[in-house]
Amino acid sequence: MAEPPAPPMPKSSPRPRPRNHHPPPGLRALPAFSYNAHRGLVLGLTFLAYALYHASRKPPSIVKRALSKSWPPFYDPALLGETDVAFLAFYSLGMFGAGHLGDRLDLRIFLAAGMGRERRRRRLIRRRSTGWPSVVAIVGNWFGGRRRGLIMGIWNAHTSVGNISGSLIAAAVLRYGWGWSFVVPGGLIALGGVLVFFFLAPYPEDVGFAPPPPKKANEASTEEEDSSSRSTAGGAGEDRRDAVGIRKAFSIPGVFTFAACLFFAKLVAYTFLYWLPFYLTQTAIGGEYMSVTDAGYLSVLFDVGGIIGGILAGFMSDQLDARATTAAMFMYLAIPSLYAFHAYGSTSKVTNIALMMISGLFVNGPYALITTAVSADLGTHKSLKGDSRALATVTAIIDGTGSLGAALGPFITGFISKTGWDSVFIMLIVCALIAGACLSGLVKSEIQQIIQNWRNRSTHLQNGAAGKGCHPVFNLILEIANCNAMYIALMLPFSLSHRSWCSATFSGK
């Protein structure tokens, strides 16, 4: 069902605003858009922006093999891992500061400047960290409600689209020299920065609309005054002056837990991002080894599975209203998929493709969910008492912590891959297990809440059926069946992961 259009902004404001809201330069020359049209434009531009960020991040994984053959310092795989950790470690550190600045500066200019400076490689790391906190904060400013998980799950496909396009572009120009694999994506992201600067409105207030309503009605009633002030004063006005600091953002319930989970989840995802093409060239698939270019093309299917996983995780978390439970289920199901990909992926190309996509689904699903919908939820948590200017800061904390794991995974892989890929996959399975375990406390609370909601619903149905003359025993059976089905659905991944972990540990594969 389509959401009603947002009401226009009042002409007068009861409070002084530190920042005047005005549309981007490009939108001033165009006719007025509807509220939903503006939301579509925001989704499209932020999708393009971060797809270009990820496309420019993919070339290092494509050129690894070429570097190891043509440049003597990179003959040692460990040095390839060290270059990955150098980039990702500084990216992670820059993320914390970038998120804090994003809640205080104009997000449009902040994002466009970061994209425009991507071409200057000496500032690459510092500028990259401006992207993710900015785009999540902008989408969070425009979208709320129960469908946030699904919307942001679909939107988060930009990560995989960027990885796929970056792989294809880097592999296509590799024959002209490995340097071109960096130059072409760098030029594209600079062009994307120009579009962002002229056409992206980071706040609804910038184009004359009120911000979206709070997620839950009870929260809106307890914070009526704050919500009213946001509708009139604007998201980038007084809220920007009282932006949340990093210490306060860390104290929001759930931030530390999800950040710890993402540390291990992103370790697994980025090990695949940076080493999958290299792994494919080192593994005989169907008795044959593939070229660097073919491995780059084939590796994009991992991200195709990731697109499906991100959408599925967002949809399930909306339906269950349980972000932690959904993320934990996916991480536990990633364990048997990782084991199967390593153990049986070499039998044939068809098997390799199928298992690669399944692995991408379960590995990237929780990664996408936590970095989008979960970050947006926590950035507007009720403990902030109406202060919505924590979106970029919370996003930066969670994704910055995850990026530390993303730096560690490829770095360790560079060393332990010398002893064989069995050790690498054991590391990935252990990290997936720990990622799921980090959410155990939140999962327990969510399961209890889900069961309680189902019981309340069954009681309501029982009372209604009793008034119509239906026997209450039927409703009792229905309640027991619902609870048992929920228990089985939630415990099945735990059982599968335990059996897969035992197999991976003791079989030697």
Salient structural properties:
23 helices, 509 residues, globular, mainly alpha
Report on the structure:
- With 509 residues, the chain is mostly helical.
- The chain is built from 23 helices and no strands.
- It has helices at residues 25-28, 35-57, 59-62, 64-70, 77-102, 107-116, 124-128, 131-142, 148-155, 157-173, 180-199, 217-222, 224-233, 238-241, 246-250, 255-282, 292-320, 323-344, 349-379, 391-416, 421-438, 440-467, 472-506.
- Helix 18 (323-344) crosses helix 23, helix 19 runs antiparallel to helix 20 (391-416) and helix 21 packs antiparallel against helix 23.
- The radius of gyration is 24 Å and the shape is globular.
- Mean pLDDT is 76; it is low at 9-18, 121-126, 217-241 and 470-509.
Fold topology:
Elements: H1 25-28, H2 35-57, H3 59-62, H4 64-70, H5 77-102, H6 107-116, H7 124-128, H8 131-142, H9 148-155, H10 157-173, H11 180-199, H12 217-222, H13 224-233, H14 238-241, H15 246-250, H16 255-282, H17 292-320, H18 323-344, H19 349-379, H20 391-416, H21 421-438, H22 440-467, H23 472-506
Helix pairs in contact: 2-8, 2-10, 2-11, 5-8, 5-20, 6-8, 6-11, 8-20, 9-17, 9-19, 10-11, 10-17, 16-17, 16-19, 16-20, 16-21, 17-18, 17-19, 18-19, 18-21, 18-23, 19-20, 20-21, 21-23, 22-23
